[in-house]
Amino acid sequence: MISKKPSDIKSSEITDEQIFLNRRNFIRAGVLAGTTLATAGVYRFINPPPPKAVVTAEIQGITKPTDFRTEEKLNTFEEITNYNNFYEFSTSKTSVARRAENFITRPWTIEVGGLVQKPKTFDIEEILKFSQEERIYRFRCVEGWSMVIPWVGFPLKTLLEKVEPLGKAKYVAFQTLYDSEQMQSSFSAGIDLPYVEGLRLDEAVHPLTILATGLYGKQIPNQNGAPLRLVVPWKYGFKSIKSIVKITLTDNEPPTTWNIAAPREYGFYSNVNPNVRHPRWSQATENSIGEYTRRETLPFNGYPDEVAKLYEGMDLKKDF
Ligand code: MTE
């Protein structure tokens, strides 16, 4: 994909396998050397595993505010739950559902602390009792694909208010569970684990920023980040960290997984921006999963009115 000019690329060529290879190649060039592995890769490419059906419980009493929903066509439940990035389970998007099938998400706690007045470890059952709402958001992966997803969740701000951040708190750090018995090694994943992410505090308390507990009215499937994941719709998808166990308020910019892996390629802010190229590909267009033509990528993924003011005075080409 990368050796061609963007205009030469047919959308059918922008496959997950190619993008996966590009991303992985950077980190561990040569890992696919050897005919056995290559043959297995070709076999999987020709015979992708069948989509995995998931059944999770319905969430009761979801409200549907009118101001947080795009009118665009939704991706299907099957698309959203069978095309995933969750490196702890697999680096192949079509294998994550199957590999995460038996992921144990109960009991589950989320430790919220750091620069706060009232640190607290929340049980997930307590969090599921917060008022839950539907948010229909556009979702744009840095790799150049996008979806429209009907999330269920609540503003991250609701949780942060409960622990009362101190005045000196400026950032929020997030951490995913890492369990070597249920997940692959950091070496196999090609990234440091546990997966970590971060936001500036004003981004974290922005009304668009949610913690998702479900999608399509049902509890969130394992492959999408059960039981609780972040969703920040104006940023590239890798900021939306899955299966969160720890949230820490800090006064320093926290380290983030993809920035550690490739600092020239993935910045802390990672706002969707068609005018800032990824060093190895253009971000001007995207492959909307389920459509045959590429769409133009929108600044802040279509949310400039809501969020552009957060970045006034910043050089978005430099502070990517
Ligand atoms: N969170 C964890 N813990 N591990 C991951 O590998 N992948 C990120 C993000 N959150 C990832 C993660 C990336 S690159 C993307 S694009 C989105 O999850 C994908 O979310 P989805 O599978 O629900 O579409």
Describe this structure in words.
This protein has 320 residues and is of the alpha+beta class. The chain has 2 domains: 6-46, no CATH class; 77-311, Alpha-Beta Complex (Sulfite Oxidase, Chain A, domain 2). It is 20% helix and 20% strand. Strands 3, 4, 7, 8, 9, 11 and 12 form a 7-stranded mixed beta sheet that branches. Strands 2-1-10-5-6 form a 5-stranded mixed beta sheet. Strand 7 and strand 8 (218-219) form a beta hairpin. Ligand MTE is lined by residues 84-88, 141, 176, 195, 224, 237-238, 240-243.
Using the 3D structure, state the CATH architecture of the largest domain: Alpha-Beta Complex
Class of the largest domain, according to the CATH hierarchy?
Alpha Beta
Computed Rg: 19 Å
Report the average pLDDT across residues.
88
What fraction of the residues are assigned to beta strands by DSSP?
A: 15-25%
Principal-axis shape equals globular
Indicate how many domains the architecture comprises.
2
In a few lines, what is going on in this structure?
The chain is α+β, with helices and mostly antiparallel strands. It has helices spanning 16-27, 35-46, 77-82, 96-99, 124-128, 156-163, 186-189, 201-204, 257-261, 304-307, and strands at residues 109-114, 120-123, 133-140, 145-155, 171-176, 196-200, 210-215, 218-219, 229-231, 244-250, 285-288, 294-296.
Helix and strand arrangement:
Elements lengths: L15 H12 L7 H12 L30 H6 L13 H4 L9 E6 L5 E4 H5 L4 E8 L4 E11 H8 L7 E6 L9 H4 L6 E5 H4 L5 E6 L2 E2 L9 E3 L12 E7 L6 H5 L23 E4 L5 E3 L7 H4 L13
Parallel strand pairs: 1-10, 4-11
Antiparallel strand pairs: 1-2, 3-4, 4-7, 5-6, 5-10, 7-8, 7-9, 11-12
The structure holds ligand MTE.
